[in-house]
Amino acid sequence: MSDDARPVVEVTGATVRFLAETALDGVDFRMFPGEVHSLMGENGAGKSTLIKGLTGALRLDAGDIVLDGEPVHFGSPADAQRAGIRTVYQEIDLLPNLSVAENILLGREPRRWGAIDWKAMRREAAAVLGELGLDVDPASTLSSHSLAIQQLIAIARAISADVKVLVLDEPTSSLDLDEVAELFRVIRELKERGVAILFVSHFLDQVYEICDRVTVLRGGKLVGEYLTRELLRIDLVQKMLGRSADELVVRPRSEPVESGEEAMLDVRGLGRGRLEGVDLVLAEGEVLGLAGLLGSGRTEVARLLTGIDRPDDGTIALDGVVISPRNPRRAIGYGLTYSSENRRTEGIIGELTVRENITLALQAQRGIFRRMRHSRQKELAASWIEALGIRPSSTEQLAGTLSGGNQQKVLLARLLALAPRILVLDEPTRGIDIGAKVEVQRLVGELADNGMSVVFISAELEEVLRVSSRITLLRDGRAVATLQSDALTVDSLLAMIAQPDDGE
């Protein structure tokens, strides 16, 4: 993109009001041909409102949109699509029972003598797939492909028409590293073709890897537009949150911890399946990070520690005494609690209220014959809502209607109500906005300061470094090293994690 390039799309003075609330307040936004642009901000910053206005899902109360130098007015998403602005959503809106070709050309099927020309449709779909370098049979059923391939097919559908601006809404939220790499290859291919791509993601490392430019919103207002390469990550977070750098630093305990009498938890030779010989040491009031690539064994270790799975080998000692957490109930009895990486299916129960979600584990521990009074549940829930800064309308709000960050805090409240000694957190900040991430990270630090021990797992290496005092590196089901976090950087940690076995 040259310095004198004209924006392919430019929004000026975008304003949206909902009754007395101003969701978007005079925001300017632009995208250039052949660039990847990120829109950043906390939940409620106005990102979704701006995207809806840009893609025709919402009418602006004030402001203008100019596309290719011409003013446009979108009354619906269909209007925006016809103009060349298309969106691929996080929840893929394709039809899994139809073929790949049918999904790509749905509503635009080539016809002959009034009937669908199936050969022509498969041929056209194959051409679009070929443009993206995708080796996919257009006649195959969509459901036969992985989520990552379906995501790429959704992009193929979007570009099968004349696309000028492509909006990708959290496209990597359910992808592993290899799948993300393939998606980024396709994004770079589209960039070379001159498509302007709006990449919406909570993953800062991905934003810095793929995006050329970033626009920051806060409280419905424009903070600024920046070249990604010129903006430090800490400065980006500071601009998003409106807080000083000092307020964003999590200062973990830094004293070295060795195996011995001072270790609260001492794990030796833990193994199950491809996980083998894992040693861990955790002291009271320490945050121990587990870092490794997808499939390295991070979640497997968490599940063994908390009784969800049983180990084939090894010992787990608590305060010098070998324990056997054969199931989650027994693990809780030892003071070991687990927050799953899959918040939606193994954590929050959206159909229950905030009160019911917070008191759920405590009630299960008490048993069905010792029902907790409703007034006591409400009192307990209210105390945790205040302590963790959860923001529901009331204790009776359905948990499924909360933001991702508030849902994560409800899960933490549920576990903390059990008064655990050791908290095992598996991807506690996945899929939540940066402000909520910082709040959860600071909460983990405060829990450790108050004597709770935490095992912290995250795919975001910068986050592991920020939160943990020590980090155990996992590779291919084995713990290969444990190091002080202040001796590591993201690059050095990544290099050690990705090192091949023959380099050890």
From TrEMBL:
Pfam families: ABC_tran. Coiled coil: none annotated. InterPro entries: AAA+_ATPase, ABC_carbohydrate_import_ATPase, ABC_transporter-like_ATP-bd, ABC_transporter-like_CS, P-loop_NTPase. Keywords: ATP-binding, Nucleotide-binding, Repeat, Transport. GO terms for molecular function: ATP binding. Transmembrane segments: none annotated. Residues 9-244, 257-501 form the ABC transporter domain. CDD domains: ABC_Carb_Monos_I (cd03216), ABC_Carb_Monos_II (cd03215). This is Sugar ABC transporter ATP-binding protein.
